[in-house]
Write a structure and sequence with these properties.
This protein is of the alpha+beta class.
Length: 192
């Protein structure tokens, strides 16, 4: 059974308090000051089956970059601590997720080797007052700090909101699969 991991980060740009339990029951409290970002974090935690508390403040008067990046760093660090403390995990997960006329493929390897490939070809510059370029940066910062290999591929899409929401949901389901317990070996090395 996973325990709750707590991460705090305070800089001149952001103040973040985050708690994560990957074996949770969807107990969520998320407030970043960016309602659409809260919505995406909710999708991630809800569909992964996590408990997640994120209370964050940042210099939103400057732009959305610092807050989103720092939340991704904290969430990634918490996930890394959680999966390393877990018993043997499946390691690999994937999900092909439809959302109306949008289809997104996500594959993840929870392995200790950080990598991120993100194909999100947005057709507008903002969604929910957040720069669309920040979503690729969020997933990169999250994967690097979680020490996972994360691949997100857009098969096709008709709606920018559906594209990013489908991505978060697909990441959630892929991680849920990868983090599931197993009695089997998950590496020929004997350790991740």
């Amino acid at each position: 059974m996973s325990q709750t991991v707590s991460i705090e980060r305070e800089t001149k740009e952001t103040q973040i308090k985050l708690k994560l339990n990957i074996a949770g029951n969807q107990n969520l409290e998320i407030n970043t000051g960016l309602p659409f970002f809260d919505h995406m974090l909710t999708q991630l935690a809800l569909h992964a089956g996590w408990n997640l508390k994120v209370i964050a403040q940042g210099d939103l008067e400057v732009d959305d970059h610092h807050l989103i990046e720092d939340v991704a760093i904290c969430l990634g660090q918490a996930l890394q601590k959680a999966w390393r403390a877990s018993a043997k995990i499946q390691r690999y997960g994937q999900r092909l997720l439809p959302m109306d006329a949008t289809l997104v493929l996500v594959a993840v390897d929870v392995c200790g080797r950080a990598y991120s490939i993100t194909d999100l070809p947005f057709s507008r510059e903002q969604i929910g007052n957040i720069a669309t370029e920040m979503w690729k940066h969020f997933f990169y910062s999250f994967a690097i700090n979680a020490q996972i290999s994360l691949h997100i591929k857009t098969e096709y899409f008709d709606n920018n909101h559906h594209l990013i929401e489908a991505s978060f949901k697909a990441v959630a389901f892929a991680l849920k699969q990868a983090l599931a317990s197993t009695a089997l070996e998950n590496s020929s090395k004997g350790v991740l």
